[in-house]
Amino acid sequence: MYAYDEIDRTLINERVAEFRDQVKRRLAGELTEDEFKMLRLMNGVYLQLHAYMFRVAIPYGTLSSPQLRKMAHVARRYDRGYGHFTTRQNIQFNWIKLADLPDALEDLASVGIHAMQTSGNCTRNVTTDQWAGVAPGEVEDPRIWAELLRQYSTMHPEFSFLPRKFKIAITASAHDRAAIKVHDIGLRIHKNEAGETGFEVLVGGGLGRTPFIGKVIKPFVHGRDILSYVESILRVYNQYGRRDNIYKARIKILVHELGIEKFAAEVEDEWLAMRDSALTLDNEVVEDIRSRFSYPHYQKLSDTPDELTAASADPHFARWLKNSVAPHQRTGYAIVTLSLKPVGGPPGDATAEQMDAVADLADKYSFGEIRVGHEQNLALPSVAKHDLPALWRQLDKLGLATPNVNLVTDIIACPGLDYCSLANTRSIPIAQELTRRFANHDLAELIGRLHINISGCINACGHHHVGHIGILGVEKNGEEFFQITIGGRADEHAVVGTLIGPAVPFAEVADVIEDIVEAYLALRARPDELFVQTVERLGVEPFKERVYATR
Amino acid sequence: MTSPLQQKIKINGPSVVTANRTWDGVVIYRDAHKGWTTDLAQAAIVHTADDARALLAESTADDVGAIGPYIAPVAVNDNGVVEPGNLREQIRRQGVTIDLPVSA
Ligand code: HEM
Ligand code: SF4
């Protein structure tokens, strides 16, 4: 966990007081909506269809148990008893009243939580691997660098009014769980031949209307230079990024239009002029940040405790163990994913009771720490293996042990037309129907890893472009229709999926997905050939045929 | 934002002006008495572009009470009951189409 210092606490508290005053003036009619909108957005407050929506940052996806309990409190006290975990390590509350927001922000501030960088044309909440600090084989804890970038970018005066929003993600593992290739800047921590830590820097990735996979702009930037290098990118973007057309304003468009070589040359010029500036990170600064992360006092434990061996005789437990429990850096410990994708439930939602209970379980079994990942699930990062059976029994009672992590029902979905004012179509009911169709765990396991991602409009909040199967809501003559893409992926081999044909109506989506899955089962070369691999090998044609032959 | 007075307004049938209430975000409709109502049945219904423009202008002037007023289609059935004219407006009136998560 990271301990905030006095400067952070003062900043957050001042921000709450400021917003309280702004809300008061808005409600008194002293501020018009035009004037107020920017101010509320800077504090994570959007307007949706039925109410305001409040987006709160979970920096690098790490929460302490008191912080999660405070989220539960906000859900219960000011909202309708639940929250929605998003793909960018934020939580959203859907029913909050403007008049209550200053109190909610103040309550969250008491545990160091805020809503800065959750909206507006600034650098957004820097995201990272939800397994940071515990993933085996990780080069080092990426949260140190996420925190440095957070401190550097929060309320940065030069970059608070960028042409458009700006998203940075970091990973330090070979397997990318942070989707860095679809971010404005993606950072992959690795070591050079001299054994020094640095970053492979990618730029220009993004989803939305015009999806792009990020391109490598520099294969190695030394850790001490990362702030100056990121600033150089931001400066070039700030100067040349298009402000005249919102659809062309993201850095991905600039990189695409200039070409990566030209863009890189601009950045290099900028960087050479400033690399030895005040932004150079000396070791002390990095070590100071590192020292403010506290790590669990791990014990020497057995990797094969008796409790685990005994419990594994229960097929339900064994199934969950295989699906939701992953290896940890330390012997005798494991990383446990808590599925927020129950059969028939809205993906990513958790009730206040679940949040409170998870906080208690974290205290009891995971050193008080909870993680939030971009797949809209939670994780307990450091659970002693001998505690797994006891933990499982309690998670199961809470509805948080569905053994479907990374399987067909582990669906990413945006709020869609049930909540969102920009939506063309609903997305949650599609996800719910699919979880019912594929509720049989034997079937889901037979199918294997398969990510379905759903967005209710082209803004792509549900990452549909990079779903193995992507579902995008479009409107046709006032009716809800859905375009289906296949073959996308969001990991280190990120690629945008291919459209298989004309959009299908709401009522047929689940049938179409079933057809696609059946086609895959018939076509795959081996049982362990993943869906995306079959699509890569055969292209979309056989799937297209299967779906449209009878429609 | 273009002033509503300058906006080209086209309506294809009976319409209302709807917005969200400032202090809590709740869905509201402009009524015929220069006020707002949460009940669609009480909303002022307009049938011509000129009337729609006037109702919108009057609504937009109340910046303290409402956010983002716009014209939305409605359907009036044979019994005179007013229904939202599309799915979006139906969801705005009735709430989400899914069950909200509830505690076990
Ligand atoms: C009130 C609700 C929301 C609004 C108004 C909204 C708005 C938008 C817009 C306009 C974009 C397109 C940005 C662009 O291409 O320049 C976008 C992208 C995105 N949003 Fe949302 N969003 C909402 C909810 C969410 C939720 C719930 C999630 C997570 C589940 C999310 C995650 C993302 C992501 C990951 C992207 C695409 C990545 C990118 O290219 O930036 N958003 N959103
Ligand atoms: S993808 Fe569209 S519908 Fe879904 S949350 Fe984003 S803006 Fe709303």
Describe the secondary structure blueprint for this structure.
The complex is a heterodimer of chains A (551) and B (104).
Chain A: H1 6-27, H2 33-41, E1 45-47, E2 52-57, E3 62-64, H3 65-78, E4 82-85, E5 90-96, H4 101-109, E6 127-128, H5 142-153, E7 168-171, E8 185-191, E9 197-203, E10 215-222, H6 226-240, H7 251-258, H8 260-274, H9 283-291, H10 306-311, H11 315-324, E11 325-327, E12 333-338, E13 349-351, H12 352-365, E14 369-372, E15 378-384, H13 388-398, E16 412-413, H14 428-437, H15 441-447, E17 452-455, E18 469-476, E19 479-486, E20 498-499, E21 504-505, H16 509-523, H17 531-538, H18 541-548
Parallel strand pairs in A: 6-7, 7-8, 16-17, 17-18
Antiparallel strand pairs in A: 1-2, 2-5, 3-14, 4-5, 4-13, 8-9, 9-10, 11-12, 12-15, 14-15, 18-19, 19-20, 19-21
Chain B: E1 15-21, E2 27-30, E3 36-37, H1 49-60, E4 66-76, E5 82-84, H2 87-94
Antiparallel strand pairs in B: 1-2, 1-4, 2-3, 4-5
Residues 46, 48, 53, 86-88, 92, 164, 167, 206-209, 250, 414-415, 420, 422, 459-461, 463 of chain A line the site of protoporphyrin IX containing FE.
Low-confidence stretches of chain B: 1-5
Helix content of chain A: 25-40%
Question: The CATH topology of the largest domain in chain A is what?
Answer: Sulfite Reductase Hemoprotein, domain 1
Number of strands of chain A: 21
Which radius of gyration of chain A do the C-alpha atoms yield? 23 Å
Domain count of chain B: the total is 1
Distance between the termini of chain A: 54 Å
Content of β-strand of chain B: 25-35%
- Quaternary structure annotation: heterodimer
